[in-house]
Structure formats: structure tokens, C-alpha cells
Design a protein that fits this description.
heterodimer, A: mainly beta, ATP Synthase, domain 1, 9 strands, 64% strand, B: alpha/beta, Helix Hairpins, 6 helices, 62% helix
């Protein structure tokens, strides 16, 4: 399978705004009992969110979005993060000195 | 025939009204743009949450979770009516009030004790004038409502629903379909809709923690998000209605001004003609 088809569709949204929408190779979310990593091909899942940062890696790009409370749904390689609150996203390229 | 000066005075008055309606139209347009954005941003969250909740809820869970209580008979209900704080938006508030009154009549006909929660000065003054009791009146919700506004509105009602003091909560608000179409609609917030047959739950989700724990957290969020959406849509619809109303007022003023200007010119010309006739007549008489 080629590279582009093995991407997750990611949406980080709150009641007031869409914090992030795009694709990613992997995503790390703060679940209610600790961090949880999701890769392509994850089984359908629902869980609650805690407070922390969602990290979306797409190639060499890294997006971090702070979230608090809410809910996570994974289905058909679509990750929906429905948070009660979503902060401003910040992006880093690979050269930003962030080992992540 | 009216005097030219009288017509001129009327023209001035129409002109200044036109200036006001034109300004209000432009203000509404810019507020509408912001409100539209808010609606667009609120919809994905509310839609997905609704889908998820409907997916998770089963009749078995409904018996465990107090917020999913499905009363056999509705004895006490609350209606939240969302109207605007300001007028000059055409039939916007009248339509909402009519819808709420229809629902009230319907509920009272089936012997439901109904309380009224009214948001917005326009709705409040209507029902105060008609001596209808209102449980809650609020005018503090602005043009751009926040989820906190929604929370402060729905949380006390949700608590009373859980304590079985209320059996249903309805909200009447304007739906923002487009700028031109903002029909009033009624939504039932509580009890939460539970599909009767067991959802196939395709695909089989891993639930962590279990469905009842997830639901206990999601239901309040779902309520707030539905209420927030109602407030936001109503705010956008109000601006849309005001823009339409003010646009037609401005257009009317334009038409009116054209007619008045024609009358004014005719009157002015007639005055000049008769003055000329007098002068010439006088001059002729002096010549002898």
C-alpha cells in the first residue's frame, strides 16, 4: 500500500470551534487514565479524555493541541477528539528541535 | 396639492429613517457573518456527539442512568423559549412566540403542568403583558452566546429532571437554515432520545471505560452542546432576520423617496409657474 493511503483522518473539535482537522501518521491523546497512541488500522474504540496535549504527527510535522475533558472515537481510521475545551494549536517541523 | 416645502420636510424625515435602517442593515450583516461562523463551528461537535450518544444508548442502559429516564407519562414539563433582546427584525420574535404558544397549548391540553423559561426581552415583555407566569426570565445572553450560557441554562433543569421533578424539557428557537430561511422549531432536549431496538453497534467498539461510565460523562456534555447550538443558531437567525427586515425597510424608503422627489419637483414647478403668471400679469397691468 502506498504512503498516502495509510494516514489517519484526525479532527479535534470543541463545542465552540474546530481546533484541528487534517491527516496524520500517528496521534497521541491524553485518555482518562493516561496517554494513548493510535496508529493506522486501530480497532474501533471509544474512550474518555483527560486533560493534556493531543499530538498529531504527520511526516515531519508535529501538531500539538491542548485539550481538556470530553471524548475520543476511533472508527475506520478516523479519529475524532471531541473535547470540552480546545486550545490554540501549535505546529513544529522536524527542524524545530523538538524530539517529541 | 401639498406645498413644496412640506414635501421637502417629509423627504428629510424619510431620508434620515433610511440612513438608520441602512446602518442597521450593515451592522446586522457584519454580526451575521460572525454568528454564521459560530454556527458552523458548533455543528460538527453537536452532530458527532449526537451520533455517538445514540450509538451508545440502549434501553437497558436507559434504566440505569437517571438522565436517560424515559417517563411513561409526562406530568411536568419545561419550555425554554429563545427570543431576541432587540426588535426591528421583522416577524422573527412573533414566529417564535407563536410556536411556543402552540406547544404550550398542546401540552396543557394533555394535562401537563408546564413552566416557561424565557430568554430575551422580546419574549419576556410579550408574556408579561399577557400575565403568563414565567419560571425564569433571562436577558443576559448576548449576540454571541457561550457554552457557559448554555450550561447555566440547562444544568438546573437537568438536575430537576434527574430528581424526577420534571419529565420533559423542550426548547423553542429559530433554526438557521440560511439567511433567508430561519423557521422556528421545537426540539426535545430531555428525555434524551433512545432508539427502541438495540443498535447493531457496528463496528464493535472497544469501550474503555464501560458504556455506562462514558455515557454518564457524555450526557451532560451532549445536553450543553445541544442547548449551545440552539442559542447560537438563534443568534445567527436573529441577525439574518434583522438584515432582511432592514434591507426591505431601506428599499421601501428608496421607493418612497423617488415618489416624494417627483411630487416635490412638480409642486416646486407649479409654484414657479404661478408666481411667473402673477408677475407677468402684474407687469401687463402696469403697462396699461
Amino acid at each position: 500500500m502506498d504512503d498516502t493511503s495509510r494516514k489517519l483522518k484526525v479532527a479535534v473539535i470543541s463545542p465552540t470551534r474546530v481546533g484541528f482537522e487534517g491527516t496524520g501518521d500517528s496521534i497521541v491523546v491524553p485518555a482518562y487514565d493516561g496517554l494513548m497512541g493510535i496508529l493506522y488500522g486501530h480497532a474501533p474504540m471509544m474512550t474518555l479524555l483527560g486533560t493534556g496535549e493531543v499530538t498529531v504527527k504527520n511526516g515531519s510535522d508535529v501538531h500539538r493541541i491542548s485539550v481538556s475533558g470530553g471524548f475520543l472515537q476511533v472508527v475506520d481510521n478516523e479519529v475524532s477528539v471531541l473535547a470540552e475545551e480546545v486550545g490554540e494549536p501549535s505546529s513544529h517541523g522536524s527542524g524545530a528541535g523538538d524530539a517529541g | 396639492m401639498a406645498k413644496a416645502r412640506d414635501i421637502g420636510r417629509r423627504m428629510n424625515s424619510v431620508q434620515s429613517t433610511r440612513k438608520i435602517t441602512r446602518t442597521m442593515e450593515m451592522v446586522a450583516t457584519s454580526k451575521l457573518r460572525r454568528a454564521q461562523l459560530q454556527v458552523r463551528e458548533a455543528r460538527p461537535f453537536a452532530d458527532r456527539l449526537t451520533t455517538v450518544v445514540e450509538n451508545l444508548v440502549t434501553p437497558e442502559l436507559a434504566e440505569l442512568e437517571p438522565m436517560l429516564r424515559q417517563p411513561d407519562r409526562i406530568r411536568r414539563a419545561a419550555i425554554i423559549l429563545v427570543t431576541s433582546n432587540r426588535g426591528l427584525c421583522g416577524a422573527f420574535n412573533v414566529n417564535l412566540i407563536r410556536k411556543a404558544r402552540a406547544l404550550l397549548a398542546e401540552l396543557q391540553a394533555s394535562d401537563v403542568e408546564t413552566e416557561f423559561h424565557v430568554i430575551g426581552k422580546k419574549g419576556i415583555s410579550y408574556f408579561r403583558f399577557r400575565n403568563v407566569d414565567m419560571a425564569v426570565t433571562r436577558t443576559d445572553i448576548s449576540d454571541s452566546p457561550s457554552p457557559d450560557d448554555a450550561r447555566s441554562l440547562i444544568d438546573p433543569l437537568a438536575e430537576r429532571f434527574v430528581r424526577e421533578e420534571l419529565d420533559a424539557v423542550y426548547v423553542v428557537h429559530a433554526e438557521f437554515k440560511s439567511v433567508m430561511s430561519t423557521p422556528p422549531i421545537t426540539r426535545r432536549l430531555l428525555p434524551v432520545y433512545v432508539p427502541q431496538e438495540r443498535p447493531s453497534r457496528e463496528p464493535y467498539y472497544i469501550l474503555d471505560p464501560s458504556a455506562d461510565v462514558i455515557l454518564a460523562r457524555l450526557l451532560p456534555l451532549h445536553l450543553v452542546s445541544s442547548t449551545y447550538r440552539a442559542l447560537v443558531e438563534n443568534a445567527a437567525a436573529e441577525q439574518g432576520a434583522r438584515r432582511t427586515a432592514m434591507k426591505s425597510a431601506t428599499d421601501n424608503a428608496d421607493d418612497f423617496l423617488t415618489t416624494l422627489r417627483r411630487q416635490f419637483n412638480r409642486a416646486r414647478q407649479q409654484e414657479i409657474t404661478s408666481q411667473l403668471a402673477e408677475i407677468i400679469g402684474g407687469a401687463e397691468a402696469l403697462k396699461g
